[in-house]
Design goal:
single chain, alpha/beta, TIM Barrel, 11 helices, binds cytidine-5'-monophosphate
């Protein structure tokens, strides 16, 4: 079943507590990014875990293998469920992150790799010495990450169907840039509806403003989850009919 992750693009634990109160049982999974973690540190992770929530710690780690290994272990100790690294950190760094997670047994966080930031275009890549076009770079880094122990990647809704075919059925594909039909797009350039993202192969949808900025955030989250469940059922039906054909 696909999971909704609500992005807590906030700057204090007090705001987080209020958001979690408001969203109640509808949302079980939250993303903490650099802004919130820099402001509040591990305390905000502990606050969410104390309320029985799952945590996606999106710090996009990119450092020497030993440092990344230790950061992943520290995240696992906090009970983090998903963490991000940059695939561009290279094979040894990816392996170090995956090995550190694997050593945590039942507490092991899943490791997602970031490939090419959506803020970078082909020209930016050239400037930092990457000759490949963005799509080819996403594909190459996605393979590198998953071949070296990462559980999956973060990718845009426009890439998800292709990356599902590249990485196979078991990879986690976590997709931001999700907008329910008719919602404000904001600064996102390439968006898909929750149903489309799930049908294309996303396993986790990261949604911020369409939930947090809604007049009734819990109702907005409920609508997104309903759309995800409908798409899950369709995917399950099509998997079953594929098996029958085998
Ligand atoms: O408000 P919105 O739904 O656009 O929030 C999406 C979340 O996903 C934000 O936390 C944003 O930083 C993150 N994100 C993104 N696009 C990426 C990577 C991460 O929007 N390519």
């Amino acid at each position: 079943m696909t999971e909704l992750i609500v992005a807590l693009d906030l700057s204090s634990t007090a705001e987080v507590e209020a958001a979690v109160d408001q969203l109640g049982d509808t949302v079980q999974f939250y993303k903490i990014g650099l802004e919130l973690f820099s402001a509040e540190g591990p305390a905000v992770v502990r606050a969410l875990k104390a309320r029985g929530k799952k945590v996606f710690l999106d710090l996009k780690l990119h450092d020497i293998p030993r440092t990344v290994e230790r950061a992943v272990s520290a995240g696992a100790e906090l009970g983090v469920d998903l963490m991000t690294i940059h695939a561009a950190g290279g094979r040894a760094m990816i392996k170090a992150a995956a090995d550190a997670a694997a050593q945590c047994g039942a507490k092991a966080p899943k490791i997602l790799a970031v490939t090419v930031l959506t803020s970078l275009d082909g020209e930016d890549l050239q400037e930092i010495g990457v000759a490949r076009a963005p799509t080819a770079q996403v594909e190459a880094l996605g393979r590198l990450a998953c071949d070296n122990g990462a559980d999956g990647i973060v990718c845009s809704p426009m890439e998800v169907a292709h990356m599902r075919s590249v990485l196979g059925k078991d990879a986690l594909l976590c997709t931001p840039g999700v907008r329910p039909a008719g919602a404000e797009i904001g600064d996102q350039k390439r968006v898909a509806t929750p149903g489309q993202a799930v049908r294309d192969g996303s396993t986790h949808l990261v949604v911020g403003r369409p939930v947090m900025g809604a007049a009734d955030p819990q109702a907005a989250a409920r609508t997104i989850v309903a759309e995800m469940r409908a798409a899950d059922s369709l995917s399950a039906l099509s998997d079953a009919s594929d098996h029958e054909k085998d």
